[in-house]
Amino acid sequence: RMRRSPSTARPRTALPLLLVLAVLIAGCAGNRPTTPEIRYFTLAYAPPSFPLQPVDAVLTIQPLTASPGYETARMVYQEREYALAEYVYHRWRSTPARMVTAHLVRDMRGSGLFRSVVPVESMVRATHLIEGNVEEFLEVDEGEQWHAVLGLSISLLRIDRSLPGEMVLFQKSYRTSKPSAAKNPRGLAEAMSMALAELSGQIGADIHAAISGTEG
Length: 216
What we know:
Elements: H1 6-31, E1 39-41, E2 55-61, E3 65-66, E4 74-80, E5 83-92, H2 96-110, E6 114-118, E7 128-142, E8 145-158, E9 167-179, H3 185-215
Parallel strand pairs: 1-5, 2-6, 2-7, 3-7, 4-7
Antiparallel strand pairs: 4-5, 7-8, 8-9
Helix pairs in contact: 2-3
């Protein structure tokens, strides 16, 4: 009787094993968890209006800084005292300091309160300078109601070319809390937008009053 050579017998036994391995690999690939998509949020609100007479001032706004804990684009929240946490898959489009700076520039430029609002690097000589810091920028979860909490410190300086330094006209802290309509990051973005709209209106009015007082 002719013996079957090993070379002719191997394909028949290997084929079922290959099929089993293919099925196992496909099953593992199908069960592999997918990483959730990161969603980004920004601030959006209508610029505040000011029923005030403009002043003859050229304003520039220095990019704001941020206190430790808010130098990130991650959305920060607080569930209990002394403990801050961050959303993993939900983030701001930019850092709080950059977003607040951009909106303050937009609001002051569109307010009609000043002769001009120019960038820091502008060739136009500014008469007044705004500096500031983001003190708080977070969601606070208190029982059944969540809030967006925003705190800013703002300084207004008059630039006098005849003096070696600037003159501080005022330094002030602003803080507000707005309830979130929904307990999620979108609700935080909406409430934080309302918070900045309120503070931007206060800041614009205070800057105008300070400059008007010095002019008078």
